[in-house]
């Protein structure tokens, strides 16, 4: 049960995460995994250039990333991003008809992947997420969440138990909803 998991986790503590250093092999693997695209951040260096030069720059990037891991900080200059507006539909004079896109520099994307792999491994190793957490987990999706929900409801009905749920629907998740509503109903 999710509530049981939450209460159990509030009573226990988890070990601190220790970020292990990266290697040139990991950096080259990350560069190869990045989607090749022409878009770039303020540095104007596309992922194509990183892929072409990976064998020559992976040692320098490894040194930068390991220093960031050692000192627990990331260079401020690498945090900058470029925001562009993509037109959706409708009146081009109405700003709500545009979708903002943030373009980080590729080095930031690489460091994010390094941090993500370490945090994700820590979370999995110490079983920090409940089994009912389906988003952002490898091999799980909303299909798994829907299946589990249906099975739980059917089991409650078969055992003549009362079951309930709270369902929220956000039509425009990145914008402030015009008329936010929450539906509550017994199942």
In quaternary terms, these chains amount to: single chain
Give the percentage of residues in beta strands.
5-15%
Radius of gyration: 22 Å
Overall pLDDT metric:
83
Overview features:
187 residues, alpha+beta, 2 domains, two-stranded antiparallel sheet, two-stranded antiparallel ribbon, 5 helices, 4 strands, disordered C terminus
Question: Brief description of this entry?
Answer:
This protein is α+β, with helices and mostly antiparallel strands and 187 residues long. The protein is built from 5 helices and 4 strands. The model is unreliable at 175-187 (pLDDT under 50).
Protein model, in words:
The model is unreliable at 175-187 (pLDDT under 50). The strands form 2 sheets. A two-stranded antiparallel ribbon has the order 1-2. Strands 3-4 form a two-stranded antiparallel ribbon. It has helices at residues 2-11, 24-33, 47-71, 106-125, 142-158; strands at 81-87, 98-104, 164-168, 182-186. The chain folds into 2 domains: 2-133, no CATH class; 137-187, no CATH class. The chain starts with a helix and ends with a strand. The protein has 187 residues and is of the alpha+beta class. The longest helix is centred in the N-terminal third of the chain and has 25 residues, at 47-71.
SSE diagram, text form:
Blueprint (H helix, E strand, L loop, with lengths): L1 H10 L12 H10 L13 H25 L9 E7 L10 E7 L1 H20 L16 H17 L5 E5 L13 E5 L1
Antiparallel strand pairs: 1-2, 3-4
Helix pairs in contact: 2-3
């Amino acid at each position: 049960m999710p509530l049981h998991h939450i209460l159990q986790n509030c009573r226990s503590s988890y070990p601190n995460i220790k970020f292990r250093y990266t290697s040139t092999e990991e950096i080259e693997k990350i560069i190869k995994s990045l989607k090749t695209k022409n878009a770039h951040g303020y540095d104007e260096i596309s992922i194509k250039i990183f892929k072409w030069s990976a064998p020559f720059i992976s040692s320098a990037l490894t040194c930068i990333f390991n220093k960031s891991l050692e000192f627990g900080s990331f260079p401020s200059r690498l945090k900058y991003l470029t925001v562009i507006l993509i037109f959706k539909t409708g009146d081009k004079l109405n700003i709500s008809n545009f979708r903002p896109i943030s373009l980080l520099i590729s080095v930031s994307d690489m460091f994010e992947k390094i941090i993500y792999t370490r945090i994700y491994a820590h979370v999995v190793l110490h079983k920090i997420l409940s089994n009912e957490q389906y988003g952002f987990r490898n091999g799980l999706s909303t299909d798994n969440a829907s299946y589990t929900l249906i099975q739980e409801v059917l089991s409650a009905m078969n055992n003549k138990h009362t079951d309930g749920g709270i369902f929220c629907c956000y039509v425009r998740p990145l914008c402030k909803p015009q008329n936010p509503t929450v539906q509550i109903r017994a199942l």
